[in-house]
Amino acid sequence: MTARARxxxxxxxxxxxxxxxxxxxxxxxxxxxxxxxxxxxxxxxxLQGPSAEHLLGTDNLGRDLLLRTLVATRLSLGLAVLATLLxxxxxxxxxxxxxxxxxxxxxxxGAVINTWLAFPVLLLAMLVAILLGAGTTTAVxxxxxxxxxxxxxxxxxxxxxxxxxxxxxxxRMLGVSRRRQFTRYVLPNIxxxxxxxxxxxxxxxxxxxxxxSFLGVGVQPPDYDWGRLLKDGFAQVYNSPTAVIGPAVAxxxxxxxxxxxxxxxxGHLRGQDHGHTGGRRGPAPGPxxxxxxxxxxxSTPDTLLEVDGLSVxxxxxxGWVRPVRDVSLTIRAGEIVGVAxxxxxxxxxxxxxxxxxxxxxxxxxxxxxxxxxxxLTLLRGRALRGALTGVGVVFQDxxxxxxxxxxxxxxxxxVPRTQRGVARRQANRDAVAALDAVAIPDPARRAGQFPHExxxxxxxxxxxxxxxxxxxxxxxxxxxxxxxxxxVARRVMRLLRRECDRTxxxxxxxxxxxxxxxxxxxxxxxxxxxxxVEDVPVDALRDPARLAHPYTRALVAALPDLDSDRDAPxxxxxxEPPDPADPAPGCGFAAxxxxxxxxxxxEVPELTGHRHGGRVACWHPQDREVVRS
Amino acid sequence: xxxxDVTDLTVRFGRGAGALVAVDxxxxxxxxxGVLGLVxxxxxxxxxxxxxxAGLRRPSAGTVTVDGRDVTGRRLPARERARLIxxxxxxxxxxxxxxxxxxxxxxxxxxxxEEQDAAARRAGARELLDLVRLKATVAQAYPRQxxxxxxxxxxxxxxxxxxPKVIVADExxxxxxxxxxxxxxxxxxxxRAELGLSMLFISHNLAVVRxxxxxxxxxxxxxxxxxxxxxxxxxxxxxxxxxTLVGAVPSLDNAGTDVLTRDEP
Lengths: 629, 265
Ligand SMILES: Nc1ncnc2c1ncn2[C@@H]1O[C@H](COP(=O)(O)OP(=O)(O)O)[C@@H](O)[C@H]1O
Ligand code: SF4
Ligand SMILES: [Mg+2]
Description:
Chain A is an alpha/beta fold and 629 residues long. Chain A is 50% helix and 12% strand.
């Protein structure tokens, strides 16, 4: 609802909406109020210029031109709306129905629409005029015929997306009738863009109809629309030049109003699709009261990355939302560190903030953000970009992370070319060598292919190759294996591990599967509700009794393995993770933790050094008994 | 007695010499009240089999019968096929109509069961939500308001509403978090005990399949390379490829070791 409220605050929307409403009111009341008078001929006042009595003058029968312009609103707009709606209905049927009628029909209709679209508009209008003779019906019909195919094309594109969707497949499997598939599944899911398009098209339709009337093909006397008024005015343009002003202004104003309203609705829809968040709401809160500079791990000489008190906030519907709070971590040179946690726990936001790739609008604050010798919080512009050439990033979705319109090899070659000014030939050779290094067979041929021609596993390898080619000392890999099946995922992980052993690069890698991280990493950071709750050396994962945080224990227990007891339920974590927009005081896990006490619900536990060699943020760490025994 | 029989199923994409044989002479059988697991890496043909069995694709050769009735032919009326077989999809984000509430989605499925009375349908939807451990208030929600795990429960409820003879579940937990996956698996396990479901359960993860299935069929390049009781497949694989799959399951027992880099080139 607030998104809708925002839409109606935009000045452009308000202006066009007011205009459209005014025209609508005019179309209804003008003929009632002035219909008679606009027809009154005054033999004594023929072809007069503007006067106090007739603001826009009179025509060759002495009729008031202002009133005629106002009264013509109904016919002009009415016809435009009628033609557009007819075209929209026809287009949606032609373009949308095939989605529920199966492949062959879809192809036939597609061909029909294409041919239709290619047909010259003017020729079509002429043909109709010749066949039916000039007149209102002719004009409307011609317009419907020319507008239908573009609606059909739009509906076809939208509907084929619905047609390929699994919810429609599910409906088909339920035996839902075709008609209902269309009305209940296809139509509601394509309605919004079609409605927007109707609004835009009314403007265009109005112009087209006016042109037809102007040319004498459309509305015929004694009826009159704006186009007809323009035609009559033009005939007298040397005697009374003001005669064309009224209808001309009306046509342009109405055309622009509908077009602008449609465009701003369309802009709103696009924004919605991209999860657009609104403007700023006051300053972002700084990093919360945290463990302080000494709360993190002590940095040793070979520390590569040191992060302390990292918080990230986004503007939300009701003020700032902070999905990452007071995160601190260090990575040593060559170390492989995992980040585990369920989706929404803040893994991606944390990693992207470290790589300085936060989404626009995000507020990133940190007490310390040190990479190598550089303090990233102090660097800007070129100096920052320079420091970041030492960081390679691997994204989860290999298809969207690569430019679909660029050959894989060329994309890899970009890196050395822009970062180190390497010549193109050499850069291309580097690219092929990098693909070869990640065990992509026939690397020279693959380099010449586009991303979609590679399988998911191969694309993920290409991304790893790309992250390596700049010879980074740190690789940040956000869920690099989540979209892959276990076999392919394993190959990708093995590759990551080998590449790092070879180049000495350190890795920060996330996954929601803690077992995957256990095999790949030396240390795992467990995140919950935007905070690091446990920082644990992986050998402790082998023996769950050594795990200190109840959430880490739950994550580990939830995984089925090849020896899980099939007669007992798998361990689960009851409840849902907290909404970052509505954080509770105290420990974020308290609402789902069986061990929560009043203290847990009131005070945030600090992340402090723990006997397993890592760190824990919990008031009641669970490994106590085991260690004592 | 068998609930589902897949016989000599072959599916080709494209024609002539360039055709890709996605499924190559596959035989499968799901016992009544039993769960057959189907494992294999992506691209091995699992989902193609699922779609043919569910009637969303026509096979190039072979038959699929449920309760002895051929479900691949065109002559079977949609509603009858619906009551023989239903499918649960991988991605609960795209398998629910974003413009229908959870209640409407489930009632739609109840209508397929020829339940005409609106009040009875509403009551039925409430019962089904309860069956998949969701609150009755979820009926008014739209899919976008639910978490991934909750959506998958809705998809399961929609499928159960029809009381199909056989359920095909294609990678239904792989889009979910590890911790949410557990609760969905538990739910299916309980429902199986309560309702005696017959199911073809597809996943690339052997540990997940083993937890639910009595028998497992291993698929590789469009063929079934091994089939047998779950524990035999997992603990005493006979085919080399099965052993690879067993080795690919990430295990906490390997944490901190170099198992990852040790095996295979
Ligand atoms: N660009 C953004 N604008 C607003 N909120 C965001 C943005 N990106 C992520 N978030 C929110 O931050 C939280 C953490 O998300 P994320 O880091 O993606 O979690 P994870 O990677 O652990 O799944 C989520 O609640 C998410 O909705
Ligand atoms: S601090 Fe308390 S509520 Fe939080 S995880 Fe520890 S015991 Fe549970
Ligand atoms: Mg993420």
